[in-house]
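@channel sequence for tomorrow's demo:
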Amino acid sequence: MPAGCVAVCQPNERTVAHMGELSAETLRRRGVQGYVVDGGCRDVAFIRQIGFPVWCRYATPADIVGYWLPEGFGSPIEIGSVAIRTGDYVLADSDGVIVLPENAASDIVTETERVMATENQVRKAILDGMDPQKAYLTYRKF
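C-alpha cells (generated this afternoon):
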C-alpha cells in the first residue's frame, strides 16, 4: 500500500482478525495513514498506543494466519451499500467512517461547510438563550 493512503479492506469474513500489531507497525512505517476493515482486529490497545488509526467491525484474538488471503489490491469493494474505489477519500473518527467518492468530494465538502455554518448559527443562538425549537424554525437545521 502506498504511503499517504488509507487502506480499506472488505474480507467478507467474520471470524479472524484482519489487522494486528505487526501489520499495523509495518503499515505505519510505510507511511500508510490508517486502516479500515469490515472485519476483525486484534492487539487493539497496542495499535492505539502506537498511534496507528484502525477502524474495525469487531475485536478478536483469533489470528488470520492460515485462514485467509487477499484476492486483490486496488479493486473496487463494497462495504454495506457503500462502493469504495482507489482515489476516494476516507474520513474517520470515533463516530465512524465515511467515504467521499473522488469525483464528488469537492461538492460534498462545499455542502458540508454550508451545513456546518448553519449549525454553528443554531448553536450560537441556543447558547445565547434562544429556545431550541425557535432556533430550528429560524435556521431549519438542528
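heads up for whoever presents: Residues 6-101 form a domain with the Glucose Oxidase; domain 1 fold (CATH 3.50.30.40).
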